[in-house]
Amino acid sequence: MSILVDKNTRLIVQGITGRDGGFHTSQMVAYGTNVVGGVTPGKGGQKTDDGVPVFNTMEEAVRETGANASVIYVPASFAADAVCEASDAGVGLVVCIAEGIPVKDMVRALPYVRERGTIVVGPNCPGVISPGRSKVGIMPGNIHKEGNVGVVSRSGTLTYEVVYHLTQNGFGQSTCLGIGGDPVIGTNLLDAMALFAEDDETEVVVLIGEIGGNDEEKAAEIIKNGYPKKVAAFIAGRTAPPGKRMGHAGAIVTGGTGTAAEKVAAFKAAGVEVAEIPAEIAEIVSNLL
Amino acid sequence: MKIHEVDARGIFAGAGLPVPPSILITQSAEARGAAEKLGCPVVVKSQVLVGGRGKAGGVKLASTPEEAAEKAEAILGMDIKGLTVEKVLIAKAVDISEEFYVGMVYDRVTRKPLMMISPAGGIDIEEVAKSTPEKILKVVIDPIAGIMPFQLRKMSAFLTADKAVAKQLAPVFNGLFKAFMDVDSSLAEINPLVVSPDGKVWAIDAKINIDDNSLYRHAALEEMRDDSSEDPGEVEARDSDLSFVKLDGKIGCIVNGAGLAMATMDMIKYFGSEPANFLDIGGSSSPEKVLAAMKIIVRDPKVKAILINIFGGITRCDDVANGLLRAKKDLGVDIPLVVRLTGTNAEEARVILEGTELVPATTMEEGVKKAIEIASAS
Questions:
Q1: Helix intervals (H) in A56-188
Q2: In chain B, which residues have their Cβ closer than 8 Å to the Cβ of A20?
Q3: What is the torsional sign of CA B87, B91, B95, B96?
Q4: Is A245 exposed, middle or buried (0-12, 13-18, 19+ CB in 10 A)?
Q5: B255 vs A contacts (CB less than 8 Å)
Q6: What is the C-alpha to C-alpha distance for residues A284 and A208, in angstroms, rounded to an integer?
Q7: Distances from the Cα of A95 to the Cαs of A91, A206, B77, B291, in angstroms?
Q8: What are the sequence ranges of the domains in chain B?
Q9: Could you name the CATH architecture of B21-92?
Q10: Which residues contact A288 (CB under 8 A, 6 or more apart)?
C-alpha cells in the first residue's frame, strides 16, 4: 500500500501550460506518474510536449479522463478557486503546490471541499510521493526509494534532506508527504498520522516539524495514548528568535508558545526519539526497525 | 504586515466599533489644538510598531491642553526599543471601570477564525493566558455564517452580568469579525475594550496585522506600511523576494527552503557556533536572487564565513553556482564561501565551481563544520 497516491492515481495538472506546471508535468511523467490531463482555462484542445491533453475546466477534464486527483500550479490569487473547482469536479485528492495564498481564501475553500469529501494537501507544499509508484508534486524523484518508512513534514527541502539520508542508509519510504508551511492547511500533521496508522506497509513514521502552532504537541499526545506505528522526529527552528517569521507564514514563535524546545520536550515525554541533526534520523529509524 | 494603532483605529471605527475620537500629530505644537478640539482629558500615545509602549513611557494621560503639549513634546523623538517616535496620537480619554480583552486569529486546528475574549483585559493579558487560562473564552466562528446569536450571548455573558453593557458588546464582536475578514487580517486585537463608569463600552486600543499574502488586493493597506521597525536588510530582502532575518553570529547562511534554513542554523549552533542570519532564497531561484542575498549578508561586519546550503528541487544548482560567482566578482566578496549543492543540476554546478576559491562540501554537516572552522580561524 502507501497513502494518498499510488499506481491507481489518475492525475490532472491544474495550470499545466504555466512555467512551473509544464516543467513539473514532464518531471512527473518521467517518474511514471499517470498524468491523464491538464487544465488551463482558454487553452483547451491543445496537447503538451509530453502528449498530455489540455482542457478548459476541471469538470470536462474529469469527465473525459476519469481522473481521481489533481495537482495545482496556478498563481496564488487563483489557487483557492482551483481547489474548489477540482473538488466540485469530483476528484478525491487535491495537492496544492501553489504558495502565497491568503489564509482567508483557504479558510473559505476548505469547508467547501470537505463537504464534497475531497482531501486537500497543502497549500505551499512540495506534494506527495509514493516511491516507485506515483509522484504528485515538485520533489526530486531520484532521492526516494521504495520501502516502509512514512515521512510527513511541514517543510520542503528539509524533507529532501531527511529522505536523502534515509535512502543513503538503505531505508526506503512508503509515502513522503509535505503538508505545507501555511497556518491553515488541508491535511495537518495529525491527519497524516491517521492515514499512516491505517497503512499496512508503513512501519515507522518520521515526523518533521518546525516552530509555530502546536500540532507537534498534539501528535506527541496521540503517540502517548497509543499510536500503532513507531515514530522518529526532527524539529527545525531551535535557534529561531521569538516574534520573527522564519519564511513560512506558519513558522513563528508567538507569545512564548510554539517553540522548538516545547515540541522536543513533548516528543521526548511521549517516548519519541528526536534527532538533533537531520542525518541522525536514519540512525533512529535503524534502531526502531 | 503590522500597521499603526491610528490606522487600526480607523479600520475598527469603519466597522462600527466604538472608538474614541483622536487626532494624529507629528509636531508637539499641534498637541494643544488637538486636545482643545477633542476636549480633555486626552491620552498622548506614541505610534511605533512595537509592543509595550505604555511600559516604556510612550503613553501618557493629560488633563489639560498645556499638559498634552508637554507630554507630546516628551514623547516625540523618544526612543522605544530602538525606534524613534515620529508620530503621536492624541485620543479622547475614557474613564475605566472595567477592562476586557477581545482578539481574533485563525485557528490552525479547526481552520476557522477564532475569537478570544477575557474579562481580565489590559497589559498583562499574556500572563492571564499563562496562569489563569480559564479566564479566556475561545469561540470558533464559521467563516461564512459569521458569529451566531447564541455565540454572541455566550460571549457577552462571559464578560459581564450587566445587560446594558452586554447589549453593546454584540456589535463589538460582530464589528471585530467583519473588520478581521474585510482587511484579510491575521491578528486583530482590542486590548483593552473598556466599560466607562457611565456604562459605555469603548475600544481604546487597536492592533491589526495584515496577511502579507493578501496585500495584492489591498492597495490602500499597502500604503500603511511602515518599514522603520524592521531591519533594513529584512526590508531589502523582502523587495528581492527573499526571506531574511538578522541574527548575531559569525556564519552567514544562504539556504533554499525555510525548514532547511532553520535546520542549517540549528546545526551551526549544534556544532558550537552561531548563525548570522536566516535566509531563504525560496523555490525558483535565479542568479539575481543569489546576488541580492549575498549583498545583504556581506554588509554585516561580523560575518566571517558564508555557508551556501542548497538542496535543489525547483531550485537549480547551476543557477546558484552562477549567481555565487557573479556575486563574488561584482561585489568583490572576500569572505570565504563554503558551498554545498545537492539535487537538480548539481553536477553542472560542480563543473562551474571547479578551480574557483569556493570551498566545496558534499553534505550539510561537512559544510557547516568547514564554515565554523574557517570562521573561527579568522
A1: 58-65, 76-88, 103-115, 157-168
A2: 284, 314
A3: negative
A4: buried
A5: 157
A6: 13
A7: 11, 20, 51, 32
A8: 21-92, 98-222, 231-377
A9: 2-Layer Sandwich (3.30)
A10: A204, A230, A232
Whether this prediction's pTM lies above 0.95 is answered by no
Q: How far is CA B17 from the centre of its chain?
A: 24
Distance of CA B284 to CAs A20, A92, B242, Å? 9, 29, 11
Return the H-helix or E-strand segment holding A35.
strand A35-39
pLDDT tens track of chain A, all 289 residues? 799 999 999 999 999 999 889 999 999 999 999 999 999 999 999 999 999 999 999 999 999 999 999 999 999 999 999 999 999 999 999 999 999 999 999 999 999 999 999 999 999 999 999 999 999 999 999 999 999 999 999 988 999 999 999 999 999 999 999 999 899 999 999 999 999 999 999 999 999 999 988 899 999 999 999 999 999 999 999 999 887 888 776 777 666 678 999 999 999 999 999 999 999 999 999 999 9
User: In the CATH scheme, what is the code of domain B231-377?
Assistant: 3.40.50.261
B101 labelled catalytic: yes
DSSP states of A90-123 as a string? Answer: T-SEEEE------HHHHHHHHHHHHHTT-EEE-S
Mutation site for B-interface testing, chosen from A99, A104, A169, A214 by largest number of B Cβ within 10 Å:
A104
Written as one string, the DSSP assignment of B66-128 is HHHHHHHHHHTT-EETTEE---EEEEE----SEEEEEEEEEETTTTEEEEEEESS-STTHHHH
Q: Which residues of A touch B111 (CB under 8 A)?
A: 106-107, 110, 184-185
Catalytic residue (one of B101, B106, B126, B365)? B101
Q: Which three cell numbers stand for residue B35?
A: 486636545
Q: What dotted CATH number matches B98-222?
A: 3.30.470.20
What distance in Å separates the CA atoms of residue B274 and residue B291, rounded to the nearest whole number? Answer: 23
Nearest to B262 among A139, A210, A276 (CB): A210
Chain-centre distance for alpha carbon B77: 22
What 3-state DSSP class applies to A162? helix
Which DSSP symbol is given to B229?
Answer: G
The residues of A carrying an active-site annotation are: 248
| Contact call for A104 and B181, based on CB within 8 A | yes
Nearest to B269 among A77, A110, A239 (CB): A239
In chain A, which residues have their Cβ closer than 8 Å to the Cβ of B109?
188, 215, 218
Q: Do A236 and B212 touch (CB under 8 A)?
A: no
What b-and-e string marks burial along A78-102, b requiring 16 or more CB atoms within 10 Å of the CB? bbbebbbbbbbbebbbbbbbbbbbb
Tell if the CB–CB gap between B311 and A77 is shorter than 8 Å: no
Contact: A107, B344; criterion CB under 8 Å: no
Gap between the Cα atoms of B264 and B279, Å rounded: 10
In the block, cell 507630546 appears at: B72
